[in-house]
């Protein structure tokens, strides 16, 4: 096309050269070829010809310079999406916990550029990630002191989120936090547990109040208090928010501080080559990051690997042989984290509870919360151990709603007898099969792998505080703000579970 | 023969001129140095990391000053008691208050000057507090937490009042009757849900809150949530102009 135009211009130029009179030419000997533009004056044509010539000369000069030796151009293109060859800390997993750890590592480094952090996430669309599929609630009503402190610290973080995660010249972070509180309902058998938990929570500084059935009826007239003996209601720092906003806020701030992001999957953790096969201490030196949909991979040399892969963390430790050793050795104990599928149903009920409806959790395990202002609610329940759904996909079973969720919901809130399921989704819990609480710390065999996984549904609400704790562990060597040594891997070796004594 | 030669010569001259001009554009012009402000801006753009650092220091400084103003008045509480400490806090933030049983208001003027007569009323609870257009925030509210008989709280036009402060108002749930949070830019619907704890509220003013996206619906839900409360919500545009504007845009796009 450009060659044709150049030829046309040359022909018209020669036409001009032939005629010396500088008069207007409305036709030329090559009529149809020059109809593409108006030939008002000869000088205009000549300028265009020279401009085009100019551009072509420049391109020719550049190509010549590249082809000559001494230039950096090469016909073999390197994939720009590969991770760097060396990093100090590789965080496997780009969910909210992974990015929280990356942010806090950069926040706590003493020198600018002191720690080179790489976050590896295998799915940039986050289609199966637990973070974005979560119901997004945060509560302080736990029985373990550490969990309460983690929640309080995370709520503190979210209160001042623009101070922590605000980037210059960008929009402020709006988490859309609904300050609605959690409401736990207890039957007679579990009321004493609720009272004990209440005293622990108040001791730790959480603002919770106990309500009797009459007070409950006064506060929430749409509630059916049948079978409810005691209720625990969070007054402050509890509610729900948008997990995608939190994830993106962490990511944006971490990237602005220099964290490198890579889209790929860690398919191998190579121990250093100069070691024997029968090892007691394995050091993961080179996680192998494989590009999506290709066989291309890049081994990343690093000092520390952080396992924040959530539901898929068990697979990562399996790559080092953890769990496939002899039965009575430490290497024989696998990381007890596996994905568990949980369904969340979106229902629409026009006469349901209004703006004051909290995140209600019944003693049968059924929960619901308001979503938006249009009479939509989110409901679900944790299935029994024996009826765990299949985790190979994220398909939703609507029969489960009809059998397990709706009867309890309709019993608890009579207005929910007339509801309609508008949609549903499923997500994975990074379920800790041992005691359903997080595992934070170094693995005893793998000297440089830090675990931050297994939170079984509480990862999102604890993510800012856990991120800070892991960053303290890595950079300061010990926990500084909240002591989470009770959540280390040791309890799995000594078989001492840290169980949450809750009513559900 | 000479005519085409002369025109060819002219073409070559022009191309040479063009090349020369283009080369000049690429190299730095040595004709005259640009003015001072242009040079300064060029200098700053080449050091944008430092400019970013300075700007973030500045915002950090402003935040620190705000937190200092809203700090916990521990010493005042220890020496003068809870109520006088709250009173002193309100006056130093340029607010106003009225003691329970008294009828006169204690105010601080624009420059921050106030009379010290309030020290005469020891151990008297505060009944009405007016913190309109002050910089009170969540941290500052801890200075007022001891006032369990607070009846009126005016937070009109406070730039730092957000949802978390509204959630903390549950400490006044037994006594608060009148709350004014109009014109506060940082309040959103999630914070208004926190007002469910104030069951004794009789008057609520939520006018002109820019953070609420669908004010009509939110006001209706608020009225359902607080049935004994009289809600004032002026300054909202409930008309359907937005919907009409969208329809016009769609029509124009279809025409194109």
UniProtKB/TrEMBL annotation, chain A:
Essential cofactor(s):
FAD
Q: Its GO CC terms?
A: mitochondrial inner membrane
Q: In its UniProt record, which GO terms are filed under biological process?
A: mitochondrial respiratory chain complex I assembly
Its keywords, alphabetically, are:
Electron transport, FAD, Flavoprotein, Membrane, Mitochondrion, Mitochondrion inner membrane, Oxidoreductase, Respiratory chain, Transmembrane, Transmembrane helix, Transport
Q: How does it sit in the membrane?
A: Single-pass membrane protein
Q: Which InterPro entries match?
A: FAD-dep_OxRdtase (IPR006076), FAD/NAD-bd_sf (IPR036188)
Q: Name one GO molecular function term.
A: oxidoreductase activity
Chief localisation class: mitochondrion
Q: Where are the transmembrane segments?
A: none
Location of the protein in the cell:
Mitochondrion inner membrane
Q: Which Pfam families match?
A: DAO
Q: Which residues form the FAD dependent oxidoreductase domain?
A: 88-473
What the protein does comes down to:
Required for the assembly of the mitochondrial membrane respiratory chain NADH dehydrogenase (Complex I). Involved in mid-late stages of complex I assembly.
UniProt name for this protein: FAD-dependent oxidoreductase domain-containing protein 1
Please tell me the species this chain comes from: Acanthochromis polyacanthus
């Amino acid at each position: 096309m450009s060659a044709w135009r150049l030829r046309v211009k040359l022909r018209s130029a020669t036409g001009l050269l032939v005629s010396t009179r500088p008069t207007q030419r409305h036709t030329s000997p090559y009529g149809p070829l020059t109809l593409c533009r108006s030939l008002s004056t000869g000088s205009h044509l000549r300028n265009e010809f020279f401009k085009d010539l100019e551009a072509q000369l420049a391109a020719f000069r550049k190509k010549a310079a590249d082809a000559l030796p001494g230039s950096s151009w090469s016909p073999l293109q390197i994939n720009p999406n590969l991770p760097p060859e060396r990093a100090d800390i590789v965080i496997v997993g780009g969910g909210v916990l992974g990015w929280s750890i990356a942010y806090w590592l950069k926040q706590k480094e003493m020198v600018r550029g002191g720690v080179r952090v790489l976050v590896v996430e295998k799915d940039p669309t986050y289609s199966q990630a637990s973070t974005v599929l979560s119901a997004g609630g945060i509560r302080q009503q736990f029985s373990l002191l550490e969990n309460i402190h983690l929640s309080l610290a995370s709520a503190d973080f979210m209160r001042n989120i623009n101070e922590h995660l605000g980037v210059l010249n960008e929009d402020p972070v709006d988490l859309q936090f609904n300050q609605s509180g959690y409401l736990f309902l207890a039957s007679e058998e579990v009321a004493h547990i609720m009272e004990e938990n209440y005293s622990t929570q108040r001791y730790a500084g959480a603002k919770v109040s106990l309500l009797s059935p009459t007070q409950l009826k006064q506060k929430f007239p749409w509630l059916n208090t049948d079978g409810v003996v005691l209720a625990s209601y969070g007054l402050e720092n509890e509610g729900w928010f948008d997990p995608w906003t939190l994830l993106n806020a962490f990511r944006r701030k971490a990237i602005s501080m220099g964290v490198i992001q890579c889209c790929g999957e860690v398919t191998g953790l190579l121990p250093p080559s100069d070691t024997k096969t029968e090892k007691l201490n394995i050091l993961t030196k080179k996680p192998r990051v494989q590009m999506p949909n290709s066989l291309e991979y890049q081994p990343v040399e690093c000092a520390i690997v952080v396992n924040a892969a959530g539901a898929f963390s068990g697979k990562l430790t399996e790559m080092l042989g953890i769990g496939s050793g002899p039965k009575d050795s430490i290497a024989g104990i696998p990381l007890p984290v596996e994905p568990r599928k949980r369904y969340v149903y979106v229902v629409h009920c026009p006469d349901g509870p209004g703006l004051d409806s909290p995140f209600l959790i019944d003693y049968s395990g059924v929960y619901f919360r308001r979503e938006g202002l249009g009479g939509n609610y989110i409901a679900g329940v944790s299935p029994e151990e024996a009826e765990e759904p299949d985790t190979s996909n994220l398909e939703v079973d609507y029969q489960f709603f009809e059998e397990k969720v709706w009867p309890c919901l309709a019993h608890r809130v009579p207005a929910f007898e007339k509801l309609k399921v508008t949609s549903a989704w499923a997500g994975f819990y990074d379920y800790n099969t041992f005691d359903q609480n997080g595992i934070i710390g170094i693995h005893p065999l793998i000297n440089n792998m830090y675990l931050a996984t297994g939170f079984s549904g509480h990862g999102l609400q604890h993510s800012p505080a856990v991120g800070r704790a892991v960053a303290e562990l890595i950079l300061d060597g010990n926990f500084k703000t909240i002591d989470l040594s009770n959540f280390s891997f040791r309890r799995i070796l000594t078989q001492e579970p840290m169980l949450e004594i809750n009513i559900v | 023969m000479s005519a085409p030669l002369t025109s060819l010569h002219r073409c070559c001259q022009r191309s040479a001129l063009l090349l020369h001009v283009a080369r000049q554009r690429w190299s730095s012009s040595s004709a005259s140095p640009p003015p001072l402000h242009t040079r300064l801006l060029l200098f700053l753009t080449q050091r944008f990391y430092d400019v970013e650092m300075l700007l973030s220091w500045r915002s950090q400084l402003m935040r620190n000053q705000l937190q200092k103003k809203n700090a916990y008045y521990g010493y005042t509480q220890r020496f003068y008691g809870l109520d006088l400490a709250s009173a002193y806090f309100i006056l130093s933030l340029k607010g106003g208050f009225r003691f329970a049983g008294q009828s006169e208001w204690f105010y601080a003027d624009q420059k921050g000057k106030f009379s010290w007569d309030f020290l005469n009323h020891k151990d008297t609870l505060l009944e009405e507090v007016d913190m309109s257009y002050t910089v009170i925030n969540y941290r500052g509210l801890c200075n007022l937490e001891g006032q369990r008989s607070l009846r009126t709280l005016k937070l009109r036009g406070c730039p730092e009042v957000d949802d978390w402060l509204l959630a903390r108002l549950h400490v006044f749930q037994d006594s608060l009757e009148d709350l004014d949070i109009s014109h506060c830019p940082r309040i959103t619907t999630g914070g208004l849900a926190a007002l469910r704890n104030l069951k004794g509220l009789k008057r609520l003013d939520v006018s002109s809150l820019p953070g609420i996206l669908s004010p009509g619906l939110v006001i209706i839900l608020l009225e359902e949530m607080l049935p004994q409360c009289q809600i004032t919500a002026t300054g909202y545009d409930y008309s359907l102009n937005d919907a009409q504007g969208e329809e016009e845009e769609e029509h124009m796009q279809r025409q194109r």
